[in-house]
Hints:
The protein is 40% helix and 24% strand.
Amino acid sequence: MDNFLYLFEDIAEPFWVIDESFRLVYANKAFHLMSEALYGTTIKKGDILLSQVENNDRNCFWSNCYKQAFATDHFTIAIDKRELPFSQKILIDCRLISLPMKLLCIKAIASPEIKDSLFGINHQVNIKRETGDELESLIALLDDVILVVNNRFEIVRVWCNDPAKLPFSQELMIGKTIRQVKGEELGKQFEDHLTKLFNEGVLDTFEYSEKNGDLINWYIVRIGLIKSEEDPKISILIHDITMRVRSTLAMKEAFVKEKELNLIKSKMITNVSHEFRTPLATIVSSTELLEMQLKKRYHDIDQKLIDLFSNIYEEVDRLSDMMRNFLVLGKIEQNQTPFRPKLVDVLAQTKRIIRTRFVVKYGEDKVVIKVINEPRTVEIDDSLYWHILSNLVSNAIKYSPIDKQVIVELQFLENEFVLVVEDNGIGIPENDIPHIFQSFYRADNSTNQVGDGLGLSIVEKFVKMHNAGIEVKSTLGVGSKFIVHFRYNINHE
């Protein structure tokens, strides 16, 4: 039996073998995944399966199932997901084989057409006597093609539950060589693997594709040496993986198309953003010229006109910020953002950014800089740091009351430099926090404020380029705190 158990190792359905004491003799990978989900533990060879089941109903069910299967040669039963962690109903197929000792082979098969539940009135039970050929009973649990070949690569046995999977009948395949069945090119590929196995005696796996009309089918092949006193033979399991491969190819194709569309979108956004910059500059210069002419002619202008001019400048600033973010995002998505880290006086750089970006517009007292410990130089890209800090501070101001300050804290700790931007604003809803770094995402309570949903996305991407980390702490109605952890040396672990 050991010569054939490897055939079940990589099949999708759970398969396991127990002795008359219900001790585990063998289990494939799918069974171990199932046992982890069902019992929360790994069942080892030699363990009594029922000892893992705490639920009395389950214990009773599996005990009766195993007892009934040992009393017959073949036993199948339909159960629902209360007994196994599947979304569909399951068919449990048990087959008894008699070697020097009795062993029970069990396979769990997902079967959506089964309608009877475990505790329903009728169970689908099918008990029948088998031929006594233990190997036939074992192979009957597989949905694949199994061949046995001799050292001349001639097929001596064929097992297949679906004749449509064979090129011709089982009887006609007996005695033919692999090359006669699979063709010259594919047959040689098989023979190379078979020769290696005959020489080295190590299990082997390989994949191949085969044309089926206008379509191409893919298969995975597992081969193993059958130990016997007679001429050595090899068992070949051919498993159809066409659906899996087609799904993978479809996903790759969709990914490529999405990548191409994103590239087109990024280029379009970049081009449009560039085109907007010239008209915006023209609007600003024309507005400034108009304001100067009015003041020159009338010496003093009405407050209403002053407010209108202020509105124009503010909206142009907002559009400029938006265009800048679009341009930055476009470069990021096209992998065109340069990263040039160097040692920077981060305190001086922070003061420079606050002065040029916010002091003129909001006054000296709007943004307060606090320093913890003695300042040190930090290895950063000062251009990207400009975007990180200005976006965080801009957001903090935008979502805070006009009379509240924004705190920028620089913490020069022993092993890291920490940038903290804290506000006393509206806060972020807890369910929105995991999504705020996504492009164009806006929290539910931010819709009344103007914005493009790009600032934090850019911040996170630039933080990652520094091999740094960012975290958010926020309370609704109290405020938010963004904390960025930088290493003093980017390449230092």
